[in-house]
Amino acid sequence: MSERDGGRGYHPEDVVMHDPTRTHARLDSLGRLEVTLPDGSVHQDVKVALAFPISRPKRFIYLLDQEGKELGLIADPRKMEREARELLLAQADQAYFMPRITGIRRIEENMGIARWEVETDRGWSIFDVVARSENSHWYVGRNKIVVRDADGNRYLIEDTTALDSRSRRMLDLYL
User: What is the pTM of this model?
Assistant: First the structure.
């Protein structure tokens, strides 16, 4: 609930939609995100949040002020100036750091902890997962899985069918 909605709770119709062709973004002299909205207002130290970070990561971008209050939503950043769009998506990528698993080399379980050794789009990684926990993985699409390690970091398997056969066998045994 927020002050804006009089305590009624969240309502999608309350979201302010910003015209992507009239929304501009740049970094200020201190390297903070500065956004100029279609009404001409300029906001410093803006934060970016994705409405659907896994299923549609580049489609809906929320803009938040310094206190985390919503400034509005950009529904189609593809219509923004290229530099502004790339800047917002880079900011979102930093906020939603989620390496993509491209191969699984080993999963070993010991006393309720599974150690995963994987290849990702950002290099080799080893992490621990609470074995067989409901919160350790979830399906976000037919062949798309998010794995959460014991520290809360998330790893994405974009398409399980695109993994090599050895990786798929290990994943099938674990999940």
Answer: 0.55
